[in-house]
Amino acid sequence: IESVFATVRLRTTKTKNCGNRMTTLAMAWKLMETAQKKWRRLRGYKLLAKMVEGVKFKDGERVEDHSQGTTETAVHQI
């Protein structure tokens, strides 16, 4: 996945020392506005919070994790 700021980073390093701070900020702002037109909305964005919590998904469906129970029983049998 390409970085959100890759376009801005590339252009600001290419035009180093070509103006003052305000012109650089204005250029970065316009570059971000232009790059924003190409961004795509994430499908399933409502599930991102659950994914961060550690819930497992397969093909967009929640998968129950039963491996923890088998690990505990294997440890207790030893």
Q: What can you see in these coordinates?
A:
- By secondary structure, this protein is mainly alpha-helical.
- The chain has 2 domains: 6-36, no CATH class; 45-77, no CATH class.
- Helix content is 54%, strand content 8%.
- The chain has 4 helices and 2 strands, in the order H-H-H-E-E-H.
- A two-stranded antiparallel ribbon has the order 1-2.
- Strand 1 (56-58) and strand 2 (61-63) form a beta hairpin.
List keywords for this structure.
single chain, about 80 residues, two-stranded antiparallel ribbon, 4 helices, elongated
In short:
Helix content is 54%, strand content 8%.
Strands of the widest sheet, in order across it, are 1-2
Strands, count = 2
Number of domains: 2
How would the global form be characterised? elongated
Low-confidence stretches: none
The N- to C-terminal Cα distance equals 45 Å
Proportion of residues in β-strands:
5-15%
Note the total helix count.
4
Helix percent reads 40-55%
Query: Roughly how many Å is the radius of gyration?
Result: 23 Å
Order of helices and strands: HHHEEH
Main sheet characteristics: 2 strands, antiparallel
- What class would the helix/strand composition place it in? mainly alpha
Q: Mean pLDDT score, rounded?
A: 73
What is the element layout, followed by pairings?
Elements: H1 6-14, H2 21-36, H3 48-53, E1 56-58, E2 61-63, H4 67-77
Helix pairs in contact: 1-2
